[in-house]
Specification:
It is built from five helices and no strands.
Amino acid sequence: MNISEAFGQVLRKYRTEAKLSQEQLALQCDLDRTYIGLLERAQRQPTITTIFIICDALKIKPHELIKEIESLT
């Protein structure tokens, strides 16, 4: 599994655990809903700033997200 695929899988996991739709997460992050979908499908890669914004909305630390992504690659 590549990094983009792992990121998408982990993002979806944390989003669903937070009981948020893609649209709800996007609104909290001031991002477009389609962008969240593209991230989850590994069709886009986020900037470090976007990672921090998403993690803040999901109430997780960025290093936790990165560690889980690393374990899948």
